[in-house]
Amino acid sequence: MSQEIWSELKELLEKAIKSGASYADIRYQRRDTEVITVENRMLKSYSSRRHSGVGIRVIMRGALGYASTSDLTQTGLERALNSAIKIAKSMKNGKLGLKETTINKSNVKLSVKVDPFDVPPEEKVSIVMEANKAAWIREEIKSTITRLGLTKDFRYFISSEGAEVSVETCLVGLGHDSVAMVNGVMERVPYSESMCAGFEFIRSKDWNSFTSSISELAIEAASSKTPPPGTYTVVVDPRIVGLLLHEAFGHASEGDLITSGESVLHGKIGKQVASELVTIIDEGVVEGGYFYPFDDEGVKKGKTIIVEDGILKGYIHDRISALQFGAQPTGNGRAQDFENQPIVRQTNYYMQPGDYGFDELIEDIDFGIYVRGKGATGGQVEVGMGTFTFGVGPSKIIKDGKLTETLRGVVISGMILETLKTIDAVGKDLMMRTSVFGGCGKMGQSVPVGFGGPHVRVRKMTVGGR
Questions:
Q1: Long-range contacts of 126-129 (CB under 8 A, 24+ apart)
Q2: How many CB atoms are located within 10 Å of the residue 323 CB?
Q3: C-alpha dihedral (129, 130, 131, 137), degrees to nearest 10
Q4: Residues in the chain with pLDDT < 50?
């Protein structure tokens, strides 16, 4: 960000207060993205974009006004400020406010060795082309798509309270889909790996082996049977643990849904919502997750304990929901970009590891299922009811304490609170994931998140097949 823009934003903040706002903040963002797609050994697309602009939020007589612009001239910025003020004035006097919080001044930049946007395009294309070609391991493979994704995001926040925070991060990754057909049965296995890092992460991985292993799994799945429907003892891998927590429990712990009464966790502070072996955390900076040291309201995102030893301890909040709930902001006010207002969102949501090794988790299971996330295809949840249904990746039958044949088309479902309460063993491993190819959606906004956990054993889970 240039010194000129910095000075103009400072002046704009002063103008907002002189215009009668009791509070104002300004967010500047510059985001660079590249996506390279190779489909069936051919370069399909190479897209590159820079997205930058400013969002202005004002509160006047308890009413909020918000406006954004990509016109960074003085005229464009003043026009956006006037729009925000006009919107606030057009509303009836309200009771909206922000919870008091620590006023932060900080500049944080993710440490990277190689800026992904300094790498020659030819190198990037070559990596994706070779990885896609490597996926064609046998004639059963019918289709392959490989993507390389790169982002660099810079955000600068200032407020009339004196906060001034800037954060810069990079997120890079490679994703692949293989489709296999065996005896008329077709199976698709999608998977990706991403990291908050520079291009050194891409150079450090053997992506040819990565894509060929996905093809192998697709062939294995297409050769397998679907699971016998029923309720089983299930061992869940960290990818699905993280997905379940994020989708079925994490959203239910968001403060705005609590205050509106839309969450299954409403009114449950201090009550048991999970097994005593379960501790759930939302944290801003975790290895393998998304780098998020400060939120889009300038609040430091530390470690928020949601559930401790099975007891619900609290929720996650932005400054608005914190005031409404009578709680402290937790650094969870997040916006997709400068065009959107911050709302309550998760950062890195995960279960704390326990004491069990993997072999210990499965050794006393006579017949059960090992649910795996590699190749998962998504699902749906009902936050108010606490129900979930997910299509998971190719999984394994557990028989007499051993992993046996592969299962395809596995679907798990249930009530999240009942599921968490039947966890009777938690693994000592911890795996976090994030993704450059998408994020968490809410109220029309999508933000990158991290999620994960250890392996866990659930004594009762409903399993079916699609």
A1: 127/174, 127/202, 127/207, 128/36, 128/37, 128/38, 128/43, 128/174, 129/38, 129/41, 129/43
A2: 19
A3: 120
A4: none
